[in-house]
Amino acid sequence: MTDPSAASPVSADAEDDVIEQKAVRLSKRDRLLAERTDAAGGPYPVAVPVTDTIAELRARYADLDAGAETGVTASVAGRVVFSRNTGKLCFASLQSGDGARIQAMVSLAEVGDESLQAWKDLVDLGDHVSVTGQVISSRRGELSIMVSAWAIAAKALLPLPNLHSELSEESRVRSRFLDLIVRDQARETVIARARVNASLRQTFAGHDFLEVETPMLQVQHGGAAARPFVTRSNAFDAELFLRIAPELFLKRAVVGGIDRVFEINRNFRNEGADSTHSPEFAMLEAYQAYTDYHGIADLTQELIQNAAVAVSGSTTVTWADGTEFDLGGQWDRISMYESLSEASGHRITPRTPLDQLKDLASDSGIEVPEKVATHGKYVEELWEHFVKGGLTRPTFVMDFPLDTSPLVREHRSIPGVVEKWDLYVRGFELATGYSELVDPVIQRERFVEQAKLAARGDDEAMRVDEEFLRALEHGMPPTGGMGMGIDRLLMAITGLGIRETILFPLVK
């Protein structure tokens, strides 16, 4: 067994090295401040010369022959991620925020002895620098700037991590700024997320949806079965809740005549955190009047497939581990009750007695807390146990138990179930969709039943929302609605865990 104390000296030495490096860099900062002039802005100038991005130069001169000179002078800026100082010629790799790199060559012949020595004395790995000079290709064929002038753009006081050693997941999450500097995948994930959001908005625009924003601070939480975060407003002297879902406000918009509406924004749920859950997460919700859960499923499939193409160029995506996953084609739609009956070997319907479900759950090692032990809860837990793990392709699981879906319209032809689907991709729930319940009388009855569950100790149960009911009483058209986690959509496209898809996740 390894002695835990054996690692302590190494850790202490590494810490001492960082402290020593910071002290040396602070002294260089002091020198830059002391030598600051109007022409040289010290360690943190307000601006530096930039005529081109590194990526632009790489694209423009992609076919430049080794040893060629362009006669073109350019100024670029970037972070020093590699440096090699020799007698009369110094080399550095400058990296821009998008990961593009270019070589800077600082020679005695071009900049003179004083400037060359200053480069050697003052420039460290991690510093941002601006270089000006002719664009050339080195003898080895590396696109380069033959530097005629340079300036510090920002002095780094702490060293970069080793670019050749992989950061641990915990380090990547806690210090995402370093992760973005040293790891291509981190930057690519940020870019992928931006492309996904742009694609979602473009698809919605093609279907005449309007994007809106609804309150994050709410006087009453609702729209989902989840435990809220509680806060307080000093101005209103009132208890408020961070929203768990925008649903009840977006439906108000539909009542008001915005027939196609969506929102991409943050939700907050005071629950557990794991590989597929985060207390704070980005959510897409959309509602379309005069359609149902079939129509909204078609829209959801289109949204996801278009997002995959925006990131990967195809509906076949490549995950971070190299696995290819096909999001294309028409996705399967299966019945929750029928698939559970088939997988479990027991005929289970909306009329199956609760005691029978309890016995099957007990035999399967499934425990359901008594405070939430309804027919629907047992059916859903049994379905996850028997069916979920066997799903490989993207699959819409249709027609859920009535008592677990208080905001959903009862099925038009199957008693005891509602017109709801959950979309499963990669073994996790990616999205959910409804034929929305628009009858205010039935909605009130459902809220009352939820309130009874809350009284029994169910922290996730909804309360009676009188303002929302008042809106429904003014008439809401037949509507299909859906909700999808943006972080989970990135998981489906990239194969990463949820903490990797969120730029700055909450960590303890």
UniProtKB/TrEMBL annotation:
Mg(2+) 2 binds at residue 429. GO terms for cellular component: cytosol. Binds 3 Mg(2+) ions per subunit. The lineage of its organism: Bacteria, Bacillati, Actinomycetota, Actinomycetes, Micrococcales. One of its GO terms (biological process) is lysyl-tRNA aminoacylation. It comes from Microbacterium dextranolyticum. HAMAP family: Lys_tRNA_synth_class2. It catalyses: tRNA(Lys) + L-lysine + ATP = L-lysyl-tRNA(Lys) + AMP + diphosphate. Residues 193-505 form the Aminoacyl-transfer RNA synthetases class-II family profile domain. Its EC number is 6.1.1.6. Belongs to the class-II aminoacyl-tRNA synthetase family. Mg(2+) 1 binds at residues 422, 429. It holds the Pfam family tRNA_anti-codon. This is Lysine--tRNA ligase.
